[in-house]
Design a protein that fits this description.
eight-stranded mixed sheet; 156 residues; alpha/beta; single chain; Cytidine Deaminase, domain 2; binds zinc ion
């Protein structure tokens, strides 16, 4: 299992990035980067906002944006610990999300926030976010946010 740990500052920045999309009535995706060492839990050190094409019910990273992302990861020696995106309504992992997932390795985490993150705060983040993990069988499985199987930990 892959677990991540992030600060409230990371959450604050993430929520701000995602809400800006919501203000335009668009989904938004951000990437949580950690150091390259495969450590569990992985500490999130950067909130990366890729260039993206988005609308009310999807986001895409055009090829040039994927290239910038890869260059950035190489230059900073970081890796993608999780992707996080918003939905206009309920938070769940759709078939489109599975098709367009930026991370897709076993143990990859994909987080989804409801209502364009309009109601998400650093305090209620773990109640609002839905955390999915990519399985060996190729499925995105919902993981709990509390208890020993929780994948995301928030620190002060
Ligand atoms: Zn989605």
């Amino acid at each position: 299992m892959s677990a991540i740990i992030c600060t409230r500052k990371v959450l604050q920045k993430t929520i701000a990035v995602l809400r800006r999309g919501g203000e335009r009535g668009e989904e938004r995706v951000a990437l949580w980067l950690s150091g390259s060492a495969a450590r569990t839990p992985a500490a999130i050190v950067e909130v990366y906002e890729p260039d993206q094409i988005a609308d009310v019910d999807y986001f895409r990273l055009p090829p040039i944006s994927m290239r910038s992302l890869m260059d950035h990861l190489k230059a900073t020696r970081r890796r993608i610990a999780a992707q996080i995106h918003t939905h206009p309504g309920r938070a769940f992992h759709s078939e489109v999300d599975a098709e367009w997932a930026i991370v897709r390795h076993v143990g990859a985490l994909s987080l989804v926030l409801p209502r364009f993150a309009a109601t998400t705060t650093t305090e209620n983040f773990l109640e609002e976010v839905m955390a999915y993990e990519f399985s060996r069988e190729g499925d995105w499985n919902l993981r709990p946010n509390i208890g020993p199987d929780a994948r995301v930990t928030v620190t002060a």
